[in-house]
Design brief:
With 264 residues, the chain is of the alpha+beta class. It contains 8 helices and 6 strands. It has helices at residues 2-22, 26-31, 35-42, 52-69, 84-108, 122-150, 198-203, 233-263, and strands at residues 74-76, 152-168, 179-187, 190-196, 210-217, 222-224. It has a 6-stranded antiparallel beta barrel.
Length: 264
């Protein structure tokens, strides 16, 4: 379990570092998969039984979803052609894994037993299932992203009249909390909205036309892993220095928290 725990801690740090330098909230959700592994490795009494299937599911999710999200500079998931019943199938499949991992992790003590597993009381169980159903929404999105990205084709994509802006994920409801950066533009008379990383927001702020190499997923999602040509090198260097400072601060905070947990 020592190796699994170490891998989970490294993955957790990787997610925190990527969130700090990209500003993409998906990495925060992705980090949750590391919690059962860390709990099983470091926060249960010695001799506690280990649920190997939970560990396997979490490790596979960390690997596959980490690869799916890694390196993406711009993305458009609104372009997916997935019908509602298809998303429903993905949601149910994801729910099977998420519910099993959450319930079993609580049963074995890897995470806090908020559902009262093994105890009497219906209220906590109902609340727990509501939480699981909510958690499964971003988990389903990550599951879909894995399928969409791994089965994709490359093609050229040109967007004109580009404009960058900042908005909340849920509109005005969270415009001061979950701020995200976007780029909108037109391709063949159709308007597209791309989520973009912090660095892409800096580099593309004054760009009017983008010639992109995109990966068009099997479900219709658009993913860009390389910046368009012609980017100002001095601006890119300035952005890298700023993001390096953000990453360094995130690293110091992470190390400090781990040190407090271990030694206090």
């Amino acid at each position: 379990m020592g190796l699994i725990g170490a891998l989970a801690v490294i993955f957790l740090y990787w997610c925190i570092l990527h969130y700090s330098v990209t500003g993409r909230w998906a990495f925060v959700a992705l980090a949750v998969w590391s919690f059962p592994c860390i709990g099983a490795a470091y926060f249960v009494p010695e001799g506690t039984e280990i649920n190997g299937l939970v560990m396997l599911i979490c490790l596979i999710a960390m690997l596959m979803e980490g690869l799916a999200y890694s390196g993406v500079k711009m993305w458009n998931v609104n372009a997916r052609r997935t019908k509602k019943y298809v998303m429903g199938v993905f949601y149910v499949l994801s729910l099977l894994f998420v519910a099993y991992c959450v319930i079993e992790s609580q049963r074995f003590g890897y995470i806090p037993n908020i559902m009262g597993i093994g105890k009497e009381g219906m209220f906590s169980k109902v609340c727990g299932w509501i939480i699981i159903l909510i958690i499964n929404i971003p988990a389903t999105e990550m599951f879909v992203c894995v399928v969409d990205r791994f089965f994709s084709n490359k093609k050229d994509f040109v967007i004109i009249r580009c404009e960058t802006f900042i908005a909340g994920t849920l509109g005005k409801f969270d415009e001061n909390l979950l701020k995200n950066r976007y780029l909108c533009g037109i391709n063949n008379g159709k308007e597209y909205y791309f989520g973009i990383t912090d660095k892409a927001y800096i580099l593309l702020k004054d760009v009017s036309t983008c010639r992109l190499k995109i990966k068009n997923g099997v479900l219709g999602g658009l993913y860009i892993t390389k910046y368009p040509q012609g980017i100002d090198e001095r601006l890119a260097e300035k952005a890298d220095k700023w993001l390096f400072k953000k990453g360094a601060i995130a690293t110091v905070i992470f190390v400090a928290v781990v040190a407090v947990i271990v030694f206090v």
